[in-house]
Amino acid sequence: MNTVINPRGQLPATQQTPMASRIDSLSGKTIYILDVRWPYTHQFVEEIRNALSERYPDTQFVIRDKAGSYGEDDPKLWAVIQEHGDAAIVAVGH
Amino acid sequence: MHAKLVGKPHLRITCVPYPISRVRAPVCREYIEGADPISGQPVVDEIIEALTRPLSEEEKREGLEERPVPRVIGPDTEENLQRFFLENGMTDYLPIVLPTEERVAEMLKGTSHKADEVVGELRAGYEAGSFTVEQVAANAVMAGARSEYMPVILAMAASGVAAISTSTQSFARMIVVNGPIRNEIGMNSRCGALSPFNQANAVIGRVATLMSINLGRGGVPNLTYWGSQGNTLNYNHATFAENEEALPAGWKPFHVQKGFKPEESAISFFHGYSFWHWKNTYEKEKHKAILHMANWVLPSGGYRSGFGLLLDPIVAEDLVREGYPTKESLSQYCYDNTLLTLGEFWQYHLVEGFSLPAAQKGIEPYASWLKQPEDTLVNRYRSPDEISVLVVGGKTNDFWQAGDWRYIGSFSVDDWR
């Protein structure tokens, strides 16, 4: 029988935070669609807006590019969305 | 996985087929109206539902989750422990030496540092795990290391540079050892230095991967590792010692170029994908052939690039005769003669993703470049320092290779003796 040293490092504790509250319907709302900026993804984001606009003609869908490349934070944009938006869709990936 | 680590384990996600980059509008629409390849549900419906379905109690929850890691595993039979390591993704799927308490204690004799000393943090997945000297030693035992390799292995661990990343791009590292430690532990810098013919070269690179898996919590495909094709260099990350003894007069060892003294020992990390070979060029003079290779690298932009040359000592001597009395003069020549137009620059995929956003944020020189004509010539590299010159090989032929190796940093080995 052997006892071995665990080769795995310690992991930090995780802090779970509540998710943002939901909206009852998209109708009449302002919904932000964020592109986190992978190369050449604008077409995809625009098609999300087009598909949703056909279903919700009275809803304002606002496309915004996050500042910087995909890994950078953009607190100014988050503040704008909090002030002016009812919800947000974040397009992540490539 | 990442959602859980940032405290949102129930983040509402929908997926579309890859890629979405450079995809035409009708195809994009097809993806959005079509089924999520994971759930099978229409993507657009999932988006709407994600925005409107009331939060569950679990989604509203907040709280701290501790994740302690026990110091030891077992006791159990060798067979069961081997299976445990394999089934829990704690190996590189080659045979390992079990890190028994006795073997780890023996490994720890290779350093003056205490077993419980915290070395640092390593992030190969989505979070940085912290670790002790003893946990580094356990990974060293698993790879088949000798105790005298410990200062090099600890220097790698303390660097904070993970050998494996989460990227979809299948990166690897190149690890170069300089200084007296090379000969003290019997590393190969000569014939076959990059092949599996030397214990120290083979094992040190292997430990880098095991540490990324176990200390850095990376290397799980589709969870913490997303490299689409993977990379065979991940088995040992092209680990070798520079052939300092064969450097032409005037050519400094790489670590000395980076500020270390010749009598000090250091490891240097490089980031890249692959090697390619000089034979793809037709030039008779070596410096001209090298330019062809240096021109095949992604231009350095918001995304930093790099070029690494691995020259046999014969090639280094020929380059001296061709007019390059130092490594730096060769780097400068490559830097000066690998220009491209801005029209070409902005076409590169990663330039669009990294340099264009930087330009739009006003970061120079990209902000100015955005306003200049497309036929303006700019340097492919941001500085000659992005072109690294290393000498390795056994003088059996005047061959060399190069790769898209971006220099990351050099780290003291002596601090971990």
Description of the molecule:
Chain A has 94 residues and is of the alpha/beta class. Chain A has a domain at 30-91. Helix content of chain A is 26%, strand content 26%. Chain A has two helices and five strands. Chain A has helices at 42-55, 75-84, and strands spanning 2-5, 14-16, 30-35, 60-65, 87-91. Chain A has a three-stranded parallel β-sheet with strand order 4-3-5, with helices on both faces. With 417 residues, chain B is an alpha+beta fold. Among the domains of chain B are: 2-60, no CATH class; 78-282 and 405-416, no CATH class. Chain B has 17 helices and 14 strands. In chain B, the strands form four sheets. In chain B, strands 6-5-7-14 form a four-stranded mixed β-sheet. A four-stranded mixed β-sheet of chain B has the order 8-13-9-12. A two-stranded antiparallel ribbon of chain B has the order 3-4. In chain B, helix 6 (101-107) crosses helix 7 and helix 8 runs parallel beside helix 10 (199-214). The longest helix of chain B has 16 residues, at 199-214. The mean pLDDT of chain B is 93. At the A-B interface, strand 1, strand 2 and helix 1 of A face helix 2, helix 3, strand 1, strand 2 and strand 4 of B. Strand 2 of chain A pairs antiparallel with strand 1 (63-65) of chain B.
Determine the fraction of residues in helical runs of chain A and give it as a percent range: 25-40%
What string gives the helices and strands of chain A in order?
EEEHEHE
Question: Share of helix among residues of chain B?
Answer: 25-40%
Oligomer: heterodimer
Largest sheet of chain A: 3 strands, parallel
